[in-house]
Fold these 4 entries.
Entry 1:
Amino acid sequence: MMDTEKISLEVKNLTKKWSDFTLHDINISLPEGYIMGLIGKNGSGKSTLINCILDGVKKSRGRVSINGVDHRRVNAKNDIGFILEDGPFFMDKTIAENAYLFGRFYSDWSESTFCNYIYQFELRDYMRYADLSKGMKTKFQLAFALSHKPRLLIMDEPTGGMDPVFRRDFLNILQGLVCDSNTAVLFSTHITADLDKVADFITMLDEGKQVFAMTKEELIDNYPIIRGRREDLSLIKEGCPMRVRKTSSGFETILENYNILSEDSSLWERFTKSRPNLEEIMYFFSEPLIQ
């Protein structure tokens, strides 16, 4: 990240305590014009983090800034677009009625832009929100969000109900958004293949704790998958933390530090090293460390 880049979303030491779950000291920094993927298992804290950023859930401590402004301020909320599974829209109202009622809260709301998007997404303004499928609700929320020119777009599992054709169009829209308008995007999803295509940064949560937050390229380059025969596991330096998956032909591991072998470089011939995808990284980082 360049020092001159403007930070769209900054989260510092954010903590939220529930009776049975705690989100611990989350720190992320997302510059404008980039996409950050948020990954983790169910119950890892992704939705809690998003709700805290949106001020729908009050944080216990920490700080959240939107373009340098406290996220609780009206002008900060004006800059945020969102796509949520449980959005604020009225079930008994039509698409057009919801757009009118909520669009008035945004200074840059454009009804003509909204109408263009719902036509593009093959929606009809007379459709009741309650009658929309999950994928259609996502299309409506995307059309609504893009129609008030958000500087930060926050999405919680947006592609889950989409057909493959629109999912590809959706990812193209996101890439165009960050390139053309310098919008920043925070994108929580279990479909990590989407993030393989479009994400610039990746943040992972596990049991309420931040596992890592870095660029996607740093993550993929720094944590290769090492494969070898089971009997060669002993060649890995003793005490080196690792996550291991046994296979029928041997083992696979992602290491915290992949400079694992002795200075004898010939030992590398016993192993293969490959670049992981995000699904593999999430799988391994969800497993316990073996010392």
Entry 2:
Amino acid sequence: MSEQELRRKLVAIGKKAFDYRLLSGTWGNISARIGKDRMLITPSGFEKAALKPSDIVLMDLEGNVLRGKWKPSSEVPMHSLIYKAREDVNAVIHTHSHYAIALAVVGQEIPVLTSEFASVVGHNVPVTRYVTSGTQEFAEEVVRTLGKGKAVLLRNHGVVAVGDSLEDAFQTALLVEDEARTFILASSLGYAKPLDINEVKKLREAYLKGYGQEKRRLNLKL
């Protein structure tokens, strides 16, 4: 995929995240790996619904701006470190969705409750320690807590979701918010019983195999 195509896709994902209320105002940030050691990332202080492809900043993974007229997101250290630590990750989305933040505030991880979440995410979503965002320590805490997973809750802050593509990362971010909402609603009615770990593994393996078909994605109509 060309840089220009990836810029357009990143902008489209930003609009989708805004439409689905995963982001509000100028909060949150999105990036996509380009090549092995570069990334495209949203600029600081921009509403994601109003971005244009030319607003996106091209950087290397050492934090140097290679192309762009705006200051990049303050979370460059986190995005860079995730790409360095995870060769399988090609996109990172940091959201501020309401139900997930509520759980992050109380330090409650999100258990696997539904078959859809088991299939696409496949693990409980852990919570980081609280660390000031935008710092190297914050980036290291996110990478440590994320491990080999697809998502993590940021204590008193938000969500980070990763994927092998922008669509994959967006789908994960959306499902994290849905699962957080399900957990909160189910807990208000009684015990929110997680799926058995063996069932989670079975559903995840079946999803990755795609039942002999192309891996399923949300139809984002980018």
Entry 3:
Amino acid sequence: MPKKTAPKQYNVTHLQPDEINALRALVNEFVEKVNNIDNELELLRQDRKEVIEEYSDKLDMKTLQAALRVAKIQKEVAHRDTFDLFMEALDPTVS
């Protein structure tokens, strides 16, 4: 999988407002949006935890989560046949 490159940094100081009240409003808008996203992420984490708790007495969650991680990795593999060969070769060595 190719490495992700960092986004290019641009000097945007000439684009931001020079007047302090306009800058303050822009910064407050940004902070509010980021805080809203953070709050939504926390709610989603709580929802995920509740779903896991709900199914923990019906399913082996630890094993299911490991299987989900493996399935996600397999989905991202570009050369599935080569991956399968590697898995077959590793099978006796993995304990």
Entry 4:
Amino acid sequence: MDELIQWLAINWLTIVSIILSGIISLVVSAAYYHKGNRNNLQMTMLFPIVRLLNDSYSLANYKNLCDLSQNYCARYLTKKERAVLVSLVSAYSEVSNYKEINVNADSLISYFEYTLKNNGIVVKPVPIIIEDETVGYDYPPDYHYIDIDLYRHRFT
């Protein structure tokens, strides 16, 4: 035991320097690993997404955007970046599926609802019942077919 204490007294500086060197090496490796992952994320995911956004909106580009958003590198996104990516994919879906007839149908439906409300007619009269409790109200079942009917009448 005395020999161990004597050896530690002589070599304490060597032991501390080895431990400190290991910790510094670990921190430097972690920093480069993080930087490399972020660079890989930028090159394989973010830059191609920016390129897609500069192109015209189409269903093919939407599929490419979905593929890019499911890339392996997406796990290196922060929570905020991931939320932005999800909202971007959702918004791109709506824009890529844009059709003039849908916009016209939505305008007519909103005007129809506005007129009904001004005349004192309840727009959502059908109760939503879950476990014998009314949790809200919804449109009548046939209401959801109005835009389909408008589309059918326009092109027939």
